[in-house]
Amino acid sequence: MKRTSSSNAVIAIVVSCIGLAVLFPFFWMIRSSLMSNIEIYKYPPQLLPHAWRFENYPTTLRAFPFLRYILNTLTITVPAIFGTLLTASIAAYAFARLDFPLKKMWFTLVIGSMLMPTAVTIIPIFIAWSSIGLSNSYVPLIVPAFLGGGAFNIFLVRQFLMTIPRDLDEAATIDGAGHVRILFRVLVPLIKPVLISVGLFAFITYWNDVLGPLIYVSRTEMNTISQGLANFKSGFGVDWKAIMAACTVAITPCVTLYFIGQKYFIEGIVLSGLKA
């Protein structure tokens, strides 16, 4: 009993140290956003500001058109999340519930696609969109989400579906339900945790995406939040208090959504690995 208690204490200490290491950059960013540049550059660095400069935020937001950038980013993110959830669910249902020729081979290819570097496909995909005149728009950033939702998301949803008994499908089939009705009426309510997890992953991916908008969006008024932060940094040079304030504002939606969906996120990740 004493050995178990000691082991739990050690594990708790290790996990706490890892958690503090993960949270420290966020603390440093928020702390820097409330300082003056002189305090930021001070050596040795001080842990907390002598005077909390909350005025850095309104000053920064007047120079940083956050509302425009956030609306541009949501224009991409919202439909992309919907497309990811829809197509990942359909593909996962096919791999988890249906029998078709070469099913294992196709699933292996889907999983194997995660090993392909993104840089390999950038040029051919850009040429394809440019050839139809859609290179300077949000379309190339949204449409791919409706074409499978990503191999990792398909795998995650498929693993969760494998934990649900097939008896529910058979009962629905006896009642006359087809595959579409079984998926959206019977299974989707049961896989809500993993769908929330996939939605959070998709939100963070599209919200923080810099490369995609950099390739396909050239007009300043169409810039996303990540592009805006990059331009803001280059424009303000060494004004780190303003840069840290802008970064803090930019990550607030991601952190807020995570805390709202934290319970379902953990449940979705844990249960997805119970059955192969």
Question: How would you characterize the overall build of this protein?
Answer:
This protein is mainly alpha-helical. The protein contains 15 helices and no strands. The chain has helices at residues 2-33, 37-41, 56-63, 66-97, 103-112, 118-131, 139-142, 151-161, 167-174, 179-187, 192-207, 211-216, 225-236, 240-260, 262-271. The longest helix is centred in the N-terminal third of the chain and has 32 residues, at 2-33. The chain is globular. The model has no long low-confidence stretch (mean pLDDT 83).
Attribute tags:
single chain; 276 residues; mainly alpha; 15 helices
Average pLDDT metric: 83
Note the quaternary state here: single chain
Helical content class: over 70%
Major sheet description = none
- Low-pLDDT residue spans: none
Judged by helices, strands and strand pairing, the structural class is mainly alpha
Percent of residues in β-strands: under 5%
Total number of helices: 15
